[in-house]
């Protein structure tokens, strides 16, 4: 296997779209970086599958991460990895007649999205669902495999493989370079040495919701009222305004009654960490590894979380045990600042397993590509 040309899809919605509006496009960029290290790969490009034009308005380095249209790429790739933009039946057929291998790279919680769409009347496909039957392989990142793997395999009639998660600090560094201390954590930045607790869950589905982190903060506040300055919950202004049930729940909490909790809109993670955060509290259901954890830990922020796939990072609490989570918050308050620099460097050493140039990660992707090209091409049913 040599001279392999690879395309990785995204779906642009705007000609000047940022890489920070969702994790999918970041995932594409990080996968580009990893595959470039693989033996036999000649070049890797990002392929936009929507009608949005690809221009110099895109706010990323087009020399480092070249981006093109499907039409421009369809005759010059040997492998197309469908990651963030779907190709249709005709496009699949065209690639197949050229002998192109097509891989579905699954990095979203599609089973959860389908379940919520059906149960809560949130239409996803408008009655025009196309399930591609022509994939030569399905690659699934570890954090979505447990809940969505069978969903992918049955509908797409193909066996899936769990592949390494890839992350890079390069985008984080670029976004943080103008922030104080490069956005890295520094001890005792709250008023009077008190701590500002932050919750940055997206609150758009059940996998990452702010309720349990708020309960963890509440338990810590009951123990150390004078040492906690504020609880800040981002991506929560809508539910704090419109959901009478959320309002009723929050009004049971001492930290809310004491006017030490605020419910904010959306903020960019690097800036919010750098300017407003001393301790980050997180909780997930079936999402045991995501960018937020890696961004926070890389920058040295104490992360209290229950993500089992990275339990060695930050301050881990088990499953849904908010009492254990509160104990970890109190531990952070008592011990973290005395070891903050050591903690940051240890986090970075641990995170190295996800970096695009990690030797084992690169070897695994090289082997996946080698096996992919060795197998006969899979033709989609007519």
From TrEMBL:
Pfam families reported in the protein's UniProt record: DUF2827 (PF10933)
Source superkingdom: Bacteria
Protein name per its UniProtKB record: DUF2827 domain-containing protein
Source organism per UniProt: Trinickia violacea
